[in-house]
Amino acid sequence: MTDPAGGRVAQLVRHPIKSAGFEQVAEARLTEGAAFPFDRVWAVAHAAARLSEPPGWAPKLQFLRGWGSAELMAISCTSDERAGNVTLSHPRRPTESFTPDDPTDAARLIAWLRPLWPETRPEPARVIRVPGHALTDQDQPLVSINSVSSLAQLGAQIGRDLSPHRFRGNIWIEGWLPMAELDLVGQEITIGEARLRIEEPIGRCRATGANPQTGQQDADTMGALERRYGHTDFGVFARVIEGGKVAVGDEVH
Predict the structure, then answer these.
(1) Cross-strand partners of 246
(2) Nearest to 75 by CA among 148, 146, 15
(3) Could you tell me if residue 63 is inside a domain?
(4) Is residue 147 assigned to a domain?
(5) By percentage, how much of the chain surpasses pLDDT 70?
(6) What is the pLDDT of residue 247?
(7) Within a domain: residue 194?
(8) Model-level pTM?
């Protein structure tokens, strides 16, 4: 087992629109039994998606995602949670703001994303929101926790620095030994005012090979994980069992 004493929060990140923009925040208030706040509130379903009516949680294959287009990985965003507004930026698209719950803006968002999605795949078709549920890749509300030192070790294996935004995590911890977070499965940790139980490792996909600055595949992250560790897990999922505020710089115990 690893002792997480000495760890601190290095980054907090949310992704208001699934696979369409990452945003760093200084603090967040976690809620018992809920995902990271304002994370994956919306998702964009493609034309071949099979969704219930009214839509509920659905597997990631029904939505636009980084696995299907590296270009999506280069979207960054800023947002106003209270107003429900999201501003998206991309190196090859104009910066624009959207209120995805507004039908007109939802149509604009789909049009903005269309050039970033391969023409060979079913086209972006519909903005989905499920009130009270995050449209994460899991059918249960979990928070993702990742390690800065694990990222550095993986980057050294590949021979280049890697952005944490390749991995679309929520909480990044500095001060742990590389990959020690995988030993925490089944244990409870506190971060700031919140308490979480580590549930399982996060299995990764080729989307992590895309550079968030360029939107181009430029790193064999999956191959590097397999060669170094014999698996493609990176980071862990955690369940919030006691809510509270977490902030950059908070200690982990």
Answers:
(1) 28
(2) 15
(3) yes
(4) yes
(5) 98
(6) 98
(7) yes
(8) 0.95
Q: What is the pLDDT of residues 78-100, one digit of tens each?
A: 999 999 999 999 999 999 999 99
Judge if 97 and 146 occupy the same domain.
no
Joined tokens for residue 149:
């030192």
Report the alpha-carbon distance of residue 108 to residue 96 in Å, rounded: 9
Give the span between the Cα atoms of 183 and 220, in whole angstroms.
25
The domain in which residue 242 lies consists of 7-33+138-252
- Return left, alpha or beta for 159; rule: phi > 0 is left, psi -120 to 50 is alpha, else beta: left
Residue 1's pLDDT is: 42
Nearest to 129 by CA among 39, 67, 65: 39
Name the stretches of the chain with pLDDT < 70: 1-5
Cβ contact 1:222 at 8 Å: no
CATH classification of the domain holding 241: 2.40.33.20
**Angle subtended at Cα 73 by Cα 69 and Cα 79, rounded to the nearest 5 degrees:** 130
**Letter for the amino acid at 191?**
I
In this predicted structure, what is the pLDDT of residue 6?
72
Give the pLDDT confidence score for residue 3 in this predicted structure.
Answer: 52
Neighbour-count burial of 185, counting CB atoms closer than 10 A to its CB (0-12 exposed, 13-18 middle, 19+ buried): middle
Could you tell me whether strands 7-14 and 171-174 are parallel, antiparallel, or unpaired per DSSP bridges? antiparallel
* 151 and 102 Cβ atoms separated by less than 8 Å: no
